[in-house]
Amino acid sequence: MVKKFEFAGIPVIKFGPSFIKKLPEIIADYGDKVLIITGNSFRNSSACEELVSLLGKRSIKAFTETVHGEPSPDIVDEITGRYRESSLDLVVAIGGGSVLDTGKAVSALLTKNDSVMNYLEGVGTGKLHDGEKIPFVAVPTTSGTGSEATKNAVLSRVGADGFKKSLRHDNFVPDIALIDPELTVSCPPEVTAASGLDALTQLLESYSSTKASPLTDSLAIRGIEFAAQSLLPVSTGEGDNLELRSKMAYASLVSGITLANAGLGVIHGLASPVGGFFNIPHGVVCGTLLAEAIALNIKCLKEDGTEEADYYLEKYARAGQIISNSGEELNIDLSHDRDYYCEILIEKLREWVEILEIPRLGEYGISTADLDRIAEKTDNKNNPVKLDKEQIKEIIRRRL
Predict the structure, then answer these.
(1) What does DSSP say about strands 163-168 and 90-95: parallel, antiparallel, or unpaired?
(2) What pLDDT, on a 0 to 100 scale, did the predictor assign at position 355?
(3) Both 73 and 166 in a single domain?
(4) Nearest by Cα to 47 from 23, 12, 79, 15
(5) Backbone angles phi, psi at 50, to 5 degrees
(6) What CA–CA distance (Å, rounded) separates 54 from 250?
(7) Are 142 and 121 in the same domain?
(8) Which one of 1, 101, 202, 359 has the fewest beta carbons within 10 angstroms of its own beta carbon?
């Protein structure tokens, strides 16, 4: 039987090269006052100047805000404070995952008269958001978080008492996700690599999630395939290859859809405390931990030996075959092929982390002295194995 599942709503998706040219028309459909939140790269580009000019010709008043770094509650409060009385018709975020999350949170808080801190899961006052927001359009310029397709905005405050938590509501899914792969061509190799590994992590974790469904599986499989074909080349010399950039953009979009509907695993469970305690890019955390976390999951599943464990091992094997580019059809012989492709998966992921020169955690000041407090705050989420704190510490230790 097909297992029971639910599937959350997704935005209207507009995907394709040169689709950024449709943005003025999209904005005009909502009204004549728009707040555009961007990162430094897009804000300083000719594309941004052209967009503002085109909006002016349509008599649309465009306010612009530039943000950088991981999104924080303070940034969201500052921006909403400036525009709460401006009667905005639309918020548009054009940038990487941090910019999209900032825009998503701003659109949600413009309708409220208090701080976003009150609504953050786990660290706020427990106040529930009613879902009322200013319409929101997400335009990613990196291929990574999939935030253009999710209902949560991840905000962080870095420090000894730091956190990385979500503002979440079904209504916070962007009204429109406009994905133009041409916008990612100028993305630097190191950002392309870290972002791409984040997307791949989300695909692999949602595929192996205890809440995965046949629908999320079908999406994740093609996403993994596209990421496997495109991640290395676009990060190491073929960044201007639009076909490969399109595949990576699709993989990122799908990773957002699958994580929203199947959840994630221990890697993202670790990313929350690590990103809260230390100033480290989210994609680097996920990328550096990816191979070691999956290696430990596979080891534990093999030791388990149950039918359920075999089910998840078979999934990892399928992912390993896709990543090894050895064909689309997978007829697993549980006595040989499954274990072989599980090992291939681990080997390939370790190899990619080295080729892409993903930093180790120690480069960001993380040491063995931090293992206990990180493990204490780590959530297994929907990991196929319930890892204990010692096992979680071992994952981190391997990438110090």
Answers:
(1) unpaired
(2) 97
(3) yes
(4) 23
(5) -65, -40
(6) 28
(7) yes
(8) 1
Structural domain including 180 reads 12-184
Question: What is the pLDDT at residue 50?
Answer: 85
pLDDT band at 261 (very low <50, low <70, confident <90, very high): very high
Q: Which residues contact 355 (CB under 8 A, 6 or more apart)?
A: 232, 236
For 2-61, write each residue's pLDDT tens digit: 888 989 889 999 999 999 989 999 999 999 999 999 998 888 887 888 888 888 889 999
Token representation of residue 19: 């689709």
Which pLDDT does position 248 carry in this prediction? 98
Contacts of 288 (CB under 8 A, 6+ apart): 353, 358, 359, 360, 361, 399
- Give the per-residue pLDDT at 276: 93
Best CA proximity match to 250, nearest among 174, 180, 348, 173: 180
Instruction: Report the candidate in 224, 191, 208, 220 with the shortest Cα–Cα distance to residue 348.
Output: 224
Task: Let me know the angle formed at the C-alpha of 253 by 191 and 118, rounded to the nearest 5 degrees.
Answer: 85
User: How far is the C-alpha of 30 from the C-alpha of 37, rounded, in Å?
Assistant: 17
Which of 318, 19, 353 has its CA nearest to residue 180?
Answer: 19
| DSSP secondary structure letters along 136-203 | EEEEESSSSS-GGG-SEEEEEE-STT-EEEEEE-GGGS-SEEEE-GGGGTTS-HHHHHHHHHHHHHHH
Which two structure tokens, joined as six digits, stand for 45?
Answer: 């580009």
| 162: its two tokens | 């730091």
Confirm whether 163 is domain-assigned. yes
Among the three residues 184, 216, 251, which one is the final residue of a domain in this structure?
184
CA 350, distance to chain mean position in Å, is 20
Looking at residue 327, what is its pLDDT?
Answer: 47
- What are the φ/ψ torsions at residue 251 (nearest 5 degrees)? -60, -40
Taking the C-alpha atoms of residue 308 and residue 325, their distance in angstroms, rounded to an integer, is: 26
Residue 142 · residue 187 · CB < 8 Å: yes
Do 102 and 172 fall into the same domain? yes
Domain boundary pick from 184, 209, 239: 184
